[in-house]
Amino acid sequence: MKYILNAQQxxxxxxxxxxxxxxxxxxxxxxxxxxxxxxxxxELTDFSSVLVVCGSGNNGGDGFAxxxxxxxxxxxxxxxxxxxxxxRSEETKTQMQILENLGLxxxxxxxxxxxxxxxxxxxxxxxxxxxxxxxxxxxxxxxxYQGYKVAVDIASGISADTGEMLGCAFKADLTVTFAYAKAxxxxxxxxxxxxxxAVRPIGIWNPAFDTEKEIYYMLEPADLKEYMPKRTANxxxxxxxxxxxxxxxxxxxxxxxxxxxxxxxxxxxxxRIYTEESNRxxxxxxxxxxxxxxxxxxxxxxxxxxxxxxxxxxxICIGCGLGRSDLSVKLMKTFLKKNQRPCVMDADGxxxxxxxxxxxxxxxxxxILTPHMKEMxxxxxxxxxxxxxxxxxxxxxxxxxxxxxxxxxxxxTLVAGPKMPVFFNTSGNAAMAKAGAGDxxxxxxxxxxxxxxxxxxxxxxxxxxxxxxxxxxxxMYGKYxxxxxxxITGAGNVLKRxxxx
Length: 501
Hints:
- The chain is 44% helix and 16% strand.
- The protein is an alpha/beta fold.
- The strands form 2 sheets. A 12-stranded mixed beta sheet has the order 8-1-10-19-18-17-16-15-14-11-12-13, with helices on both faces. Strands 4-3-2-5-6-7-9 form a 7-stranded parallel beta sheet.
- Helix 16 packs parallel to helix 18 and helix 17 crosses helix 18.
- The longest helix is centred in the C-terminal third of the chain and has 23 residues, at 455-477.
- The model has no long low-confidence stretch (mean pLDDT 96).
């Protein structure tokens, strides 16, 4: 597990080392420069001509130190200062003076020639204003150079908190950041301007992050092995949970199939599908391992079998392909009033819920909702743009208000729960942008939930496994040809592989 910081959290961690631990700022700057040079050498072989562009703050100081280290290795390097002299930090003044003492000229205009490497040290993670005027011209000119582009700590022009482009931004091929990844480097569009991200240690850490709730964290593959529910030799199908999948209106058997199959792949012991009668035959053929209970779409009678099925189950998944008919609304109302089980709610279940605000009172920590941005917009009343700009704040406010867990799906999915830190998912890829991928996710979360985890943990593990399954599928079929079933198969392959570690 690794933490992902915003600008303020990184500033506090940096300040702790300097003011409480007594590590001089210049020492941290030297370590940062050394890590940049070392990382560039790992990635590049041609340093025949290098341009370093520096600003006034400590990011610029890093750049001057990098230039000095390259110069000391007799690498041809041009250095340009584009900041304001009166705004220089003390550390930057010192680094500039060292360069001058060595006899290296510092220019103030970008040269009219090409370079093999262009290093951006103009703005650091503290930038929060829109880039305009001369700075905008400088960054746009840096982007027009043809060489390999390296950002120091963060690409200039990208918000470290949101990934927003602040007017314009340096488009890096490689970003060397220090101590922790920054949220803006992982959110889009900042991700596209970051290039390859290398997180390098420079001696900054903060033990308070281990108990901090207002912080993002991400998982690594080894964490999946550690946190997935364990299988024991003395067990049977009942040991790993009975799952009820309430899914699939008429003509939507695929959603029920994908959710149910994914629950099995994630380890659930027994899956029962409650669906519209017309789906029976195809589901029996596609997934004979599942128990089927059906209802008639046009029935006017109460859904008598639903209560029995809910009492049978240990956990429930509801909403995939459910539709929004009057019967589906009746079904959702009955479910929300009667349910006593942990539950994953997805797709049409969420869409119906958003039209029944009086039913929000039935939500609690047993539930994990899995909305995409548009569905979350309906649930909260916020616009999609507001969600993109303030997703973490809106998400945390929602989960605390209703005491519910939420996996907010996007290119970077976040999982939040009451009084829990926000999980920031870094697995997955664009090949997963296919119909049925959400059904697969709901099923994976449900399958993990059935094995005894709580809803928040199941959401975190399910989202991460889903993305890893998608990565596996992309590697097998490429970016264009992945289907939802391939994601499920990929997830199964991932689980097999972690058993072998």
